[in-house]
Amino acid sequence: NAGVTQTPKFQVLKTGQSMTLQCAQDMNHEYMSWYRQDPGMGLRLIHYSVGAGITDQGEVPNGYNVSRSTTEDFPLRLLSAAPSQTSVYFCASSYSGLAGGGTGELFFGEGSRLTVL
Amino acid sequence: EDQVTQSPEALRLQEGESSSLNCSYTVSGLRGLFWYRQDPGKGPEFLFTLYSAGEEKEKERLKATLTKKESFLHITAPKPEDSATYLCARMDSNYQLIWGAGTKLIIKP
Fold first, then answer.
1. What is the widest separation between alpha-carbon atoms in chain A?
2. In terms of C-beta density within 10 A (0-12 exposed, 13-18 middle, 19 or more buried), how is residue A30 classed?
3. CA nearest B75: which of B91, B90, B86?
4. What is the DSSP letter of A73?
5. Which residues on chain B are in Cβ contact (under 8 Å) with A105?
6. Chain A residues with beta carbon closer than 8 angstroms to that of B95
7. CB-based contact, B4 to chain A, within 8 Å
8. Nearest to B83 by CA among B14, B5, B35
9. Does residue B1 belong to the interface with chain A, where contact is any CB pair within 8 Å?
10. Mean pLDDT, to the nearest integer, of A21-26?
11. Cβ distance A43 to A90 under 8 Å?
């Protein structure tokens, strides 16, 4: 059971470099999202998608791009890395998102730790 | 401003010593309240969803309760393996989650 897979687990960038964090899920989930987690703060939503071809901004979208060309994949692109983007990034998915009712359970990947120098 | 506040920030208990974690929020008309567990170096893992004041959910040594303004996660006779950071979150008007900063729970044998 792969669940939600994130790559890479660790990455060090220099200011101004770009990169893509990969997220893939094998549960046929329609909803996928990206969060960042910083010390002493709650998880903050960056972008989310309710299905292939549909994306929307979360609380902290600036400096990040997403696309959703398939149900399985939801990559997060950092356009020009800044030290303020040093964080742990989590991808999460669910069958229908929270609007679908039920438990609303989100399945998380193990995280990608990014350091921007 | 919509906020979710968790207290305490950290809690150290002896094995078998029961206690409660608090999650409070400032918005009225709660759409849903969620509890997750996070182990070091891992992603959060779902525990409970509560939708209505008075609702309770249980799983092993954990019980979550909900009022109009706050939720409690009660831990009964905890074991060292219950050590983790416990996160709560509420659903906003866009059906997305607003998260608290978490309570780090340490259970000493």
1. 43
2. middle
3. B86
4. B
5. 46, 49
6. 97-99
7. yes
8. B14
9. no
10. 98
11. yes
CA distance B43 to A107: 8
> Which DSSP helix (H) or strand (E) runs through B108?
strand B103-108
The SS3 of residue A69 is coil
Pairing of strands B4-7, A4-7: unpaired
Q: Calculate the alpha carbon distances from A111 to A51, A99, B81 in Å.
A: 22, 25, 22
**What would the pLDDT profile of B51-90 be if each residue is shown by its tens digit?**
999 999 999 999 999 998 899 999 999 999 999 999 999 9
CA distances from A71 to A28, A77, B35 (A): 7, 17, 27
Strand locations in A1-117 (E)? 4-7, 10-13, 19-25, 31-37, 44-51, 54-57, 64-66, 76-78, 87-94, 107-108, 112-116
Give the total residue count for chain A.
117
The alpha carbon of residue B101 is apart from the nearest alpha carbon of chain A, in Å, by: 4
Give CA–CA dist B15/B80, Å, rounded: 6
Confidence of residue B94 (pLDDT cuts 50, 70, 90): confident
Structure tokens at B11: 């809690």
The partner residues of B21 in beta bridges, in order of sequence, read B73
CA A92 to chain centre: 7
